[in-house]
What we know:
Elements: E1 4-6, E2 9-13, H1 16-19, E3 28-33, H2 49-66, E4 67-77, E5 81-83, E6 86-87, H3 90-101, E7 104-111, H4 119-122, E8 131-138, H5 155-162, E9 168-170, E10 176-178, H6 179-189, E11 197-199, H7 213-223, E12 229-232, H8 239-246, E13 250-255, H9 262-275
Parallel strand pairs: 2-13, 3-4, 3-12, 7-11, 12-13
Antiparallel strand pairs: 1-2, 4-8, 5-6, 7-8, 9-10
Amino acid sequence: MTDWHSDGVTLLLGDCVKRLPEIPSESVDAVITDPPYPEIKRDYGKWTVDEWWEMMRPVVAETRRILRPTGSAVFILQPNSEHVGQMRGWLWEFMAWICREWNMVQDVWWWNIAAMPEAHAIQGKLCRPSVKVCVWCGTPQCYRNQDNVLWLETDSNKMLRQSGRCRNKYAVGGQHQNEKTIAEAAIRRGGVTPYNLLPMASTNVSHGAGTPLKLADWWTRYICPPGGTCADWFMGSGTMGVAAVNNGCNFIGIERMDKPGYFPTAQKRIAEAQAAPRQAGMQL
């Protein structure tokens, strides 16, 4: 298995820490990637917290070099526990480090509304883990197109608007809310402003932490300009590449595993996406 190039898509086989220096500076518009987590055993290996930091520091530095001045990066990460009832702190340390050394544009979270109960909820009597953070890094002025990711208007808003029952609301604290103005803005823009909590189901039973295509598509539409270049340094089975192709973007992916099939699977999925009609614009 070797590198693969096809119609604006480049897939690199190997360790991203070693392959990233090959990518030209200021050549990528958006990096959307789901790195491995420390202390979690997968078929591609297991990293201690120290080993994870040793990997991620150069990855972040290279990401900053490769991004265009208006580009930004999203690292999708999930907190984990030392054991039930005791969380590890590496994720919050990473977020604080990004804030100090670079910039976090906004805290955004993905909520897997299809997450199944596990030991935390069943044995530990705790809440069901279902949220992953999307660590969004870049300058405060980085590119984003909010119009591309507006949410559909809710049925309750439609009912109020269509029945003519929109009204002004006044709270005790003095906050004023004009439902008619809000409804008209939603019609004018074609949707409503999204929350920073993205409710999207992932039903991937073979990889409980897998990123769904819907999330990859949402971020691609949000932070990668039309015809731009999107990248994923931990490509896995190629979901980010499929989202890039579906949105008419170029793509650079890196994956170290040619077995048990990550790299060839990514190649196959992306080739199929290139041959099929575009499927971008998945609504929440």
